[in-house]
Design goal:
single chain; about 220 residues; alpha+beta; NADH Oxidase; four-stranded antiparallel β-sheet; two-stranded antiparallel ribbon; about 20% strand; binds 3-iodo-tyrosine
């Protein structure tokens, strides 16, 4: 491996495959078609999944770039049924209050096409819940150290996580119970960690329905200068 020192730190030579314009055309088109098949699925089966799959998915998520390479994330994986039940109960309590007053009428109305409500059976049924925590700062040997661009970093890692779940042929829903500090309590997470996103992961149910939706056209989302 070719190495060089820059300002006292080792850098390694990096070389990855590159493609011809035609190859890029095919690869990017195929990738888009495959990504476009991903859907948020609430009907998740209880069919078991080996933990190793979840481990690989999380390793993929942790390849995300992060501010100063601080990797400010913890992925909690829950398969224990009692903990899942605790989480479901607490999430549904918050969600009930959200759907019944905390969210504006306009917000609830905007969600009608998604057929969501406060009932979250997938929190118990899915073989795994992955709960992503962001680390606001680090504590090593009692010393605090900073993390940077924490929301951006963890958000990108969650994008990678969703892609890895899709790649494994599994489904999830980006569940956002609010407020979600109950997750820190149930999982006894340290003070420097804040819950970011909850993903139940599993196979889709034998019969699963997703809303009939369109994605925005390229014209609507891209502006060329
Ligand atoms: N957090 C609630 C409500 C919800 C909000 C949005 I914005 C969604 O796209 C979907 C649901 C829930 O998880 O049901």
């Amino acid at each position: 491996m070719e190495e060089k020192e820059i300002d006292g730190f080792t850098h390694i030579k990096y070389k990855r495959d590159s493609y011809t314009a035609k190859e890029m055309q095919t690869r990017s088109t195929e990738f888009y078609k495959w990504m476009d098949q991903r859907r948020t699925v609430r009907d998740i089966s209880d069919r078991p999944i080996p933990l190793e799959i979840i481990e690989k998915i999380i390793l993929s998520a942790s390849t995300a770039p992060s501010g100063a390479h601080k990797q400010p994330w913890t992925f909690c994986v829950i398969s224990n049924p009692e903990i899942k039940t605790k989480i479901r109960k607490a999430a549904e309590k918050e969600e009930y209050d959200s759907y019944n007053g905390r969210m504006s009428d306009r917000w609830v109305n905007d969600l009608r096409p998604m057929a969501t409500n406060w009932d979250k059976p997938f929190l118990e049924k899915a073989p795994y819940l992955i709960i992503v925590f962001k680390k606001a700062y680090e504590i090593k040997d009692g010393e605090k150290s900073n993390n940077y661009y924490v929301n951006e970093s963890v958000g990108i890692a969650c994008g990678f996580l969703l892609t890895a779940i899709h790649n494994a042929g599994l489904v999830t829903v980006t569940h956002t119970p609010s407020p979600m500090n109950f997750l820190s309590k149930i999982l006894e997470r340290p003070d420097n960690e804040r819950p970011f996103l909850l993903l139940p992961v599993g196979y889709q149910d034998e019969e699963a329905y997703v809303p009939k939706l369109d994605r925005k056209s390229l014209d609507e989302i891209m502006k060329i200068y």
